[in-house]
Amino acid sequence: EQLRADGVYKEVLREGTGPLPDFRDGTKATFHYRTLRCGDEEAPLDDSRERGKPMELIAGKKFKLPVWEAALRTMRPGERARFRCDAKDPLEGQRHCCSIAQLHDHYSLGYPDLDELQKNPQPLIFDIEVLKVEAPGSYQQDPWAMTDEEKLQAVPLIHKEGNELYRQGKVQEAAAKYYDAIACLKNLQMKEQPGSPDWIELDQKITPLLLNYCQCKLQSEEYYEVLDHCSSILNKYEDNVKAYFKRGKAHAAVWNVAEAQADFAKVLALDPSLRPVVTKELRSLESRLREKDAEDKIRFKGIFSQ
Of the candidates 120, 115, 93, which has an alpha carbon nearest to the alpha carbon of residue 104? Predict the structure, then answer.
């Protein structure tokens, strides 16, 4: 009834299963959708299936398209339905059209139709299929959806998950976990005065996560990202041995020989107990340099003998 009062009409295309979820704040709905023009339903303006990833909405988080949250509150898992904005209510139609254009920011599928919709609003149809509905607390929230308190509580858990994935050899997945944990803390840090005690405390929590992230990037041979992040750490914490060591390895990998040697020397100066590890890295670098010199001689010999 509320949908009709808002000028939105529902047509069930396939019944769902189970009871209607209560959809209290924090409930997460995962669904596919298509956006259609009334009267031109063969050419969708947008289709989540073409992106290969469903949409996720968390109730109570002020989603940009309020009509979707209102529609989802009437649906069961597995249900598919169409929701049409009433053409007799131009203000309602305009609000939905402008919202969909803002939501996709003009580039969702590269269609110029969304730009046209903002200029000339018209009624739309949303074809929605609910894949699953999860109660608050039954799923791990994305960082953007968390409150500040939830972010702080989530970081140690995400960190632990990242460590476990790394131990299993799932380097890319581990990097994604470390990235999420860093994003939580960075979001909180942005609200603090740079250099304040709270800002520094958060930064000290970010540093070990960033070093773990760099270790993953070393494994995946993304050396320049390691150089950037380790340098940013060393600009603030000049005695961070792990940052020097990882940056030294990255320098060595991209043939920055002098820089690598300088970083490894700094590691030894800060922690002489790491001499066996550093010696191994320096010998590896020297061996690669000899191989490279031999290859260069053969290559240049071939050039000059032609």
Answer: 115
Listed in sequence order, the residues at least 6 apart from 164 whose beta carbon sits closer than 8 Å to its beta carbon are: none
Tokens of 142: 């994305």
Q: Which DSSP symbol is given to 144? A: G
For residues 159 and 140, the answer to whether their CB atoms sit within 8 Å is no
Confidence check: pLDDT of 118 > 70? no
Rounded to an integer, what distance in angstroms lies between the CA atom of residue 286 and that of residue 40?
Answer: 68
Angular region, 109: left φ>0, alpha ψ -120 to 50, beta rest: alpha
Largest CA distance in the chain: 87
8 A C-beta contact, residue 102 and residue 95:
no
Position 29 scores a pLDDT of 95
**What is the model's pTM?**
0.64
Whole-number Å distance between alpha carbons of 306 and 298: 13
Task: Compute the distance between CA of residue 90 and CA of residue 101 in angstroms, rounded to an integer.
Answer: 16
CATH number of 143-304: 1.25.40.10
CB distance 268 to 278 below 8 Å? yes
Q: Which spans in 145-274 are helix H?
A: 148-167, 171-189, 197-219, 223-236, 241-253, 257-270
Q: So where are the chain's domains?
A: 2-134, 143-304
Long-range contacts of 107-110 (CB under 8 A, 24+ apart): 108/46, 108/51, 109/46, 109/47, 109/50, 109/51
Tell me the backbone φ, ψ of residue 111, rounded to 5 degrees: -85, 135
Distance (Å, whole) CA 93 – CA 274: 67
Give the pLDDT of residue 241. Answer: 98
| Model pLDDT for residues 119-165, shown as the tens digit of each residue | 566 788 999 999 999 998 788 777 777 889 989 999 999 999 999 99
Q: For domain 2-134, which CATH number applies: 3.30.450.20, 1.10.10.10, 2.60.40.1180, 3.10.50.40?
A: 3.10.50.40
